[in-house]
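User: Second chain of the day. Same drill as before.
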Amino acid sequence: MIKKSMMLLMALTFCIAGAANAKMTLKPGERAPNFDLKGSDGHWHKLSDFRGHYVVLYFYLKDETPGCTTEACTFRNDLSTFTKEHARVIGVSVQTVKSHLAFIKKYHLNFLLLADPRHKVAKEYGVYNPKWKLDDRVTFLLNPNGKIVKVYPRVDPSMNPDQVIAELKMLETKKG
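Assistant: Same format as last time:
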């Protein structure tokens, strides 16, 4: 009985903590906050630089952790499909550019990673988790005008790219 009560209490605590963070997350239809972050290519990037393209902006916890590696490699493997759908894939985490470069090299990643070591952008997007001092795993699909089309909270790293591709294809069908 005590064990069941403890498990229920723990589950409730996680739900409350998750709900508090979910309230801060931006919603579809809102304009995505602009940013100015240094990328793995050595250049500074603003969200406005990608106008005219769909943007898959995915926040992840940390380079080279199992889930984040799975997600990055799945995006890597599906990059040609994203390109066909006129979408740019951009990963953001608290790691430095140096860490991103090692991650890219080790896993042959073929898309841009941005460094947000001060959590400024993660906080603006409502995905910063102060308890762990890391970003939550959340993906935003942005339209070519910089508005949020869809938010994918607490994604399954192996499924997230497929979910975004399905949404992009549906958007193209609506346009045509």
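The mean pLDDT is 87.

User: Great, on to the next one.
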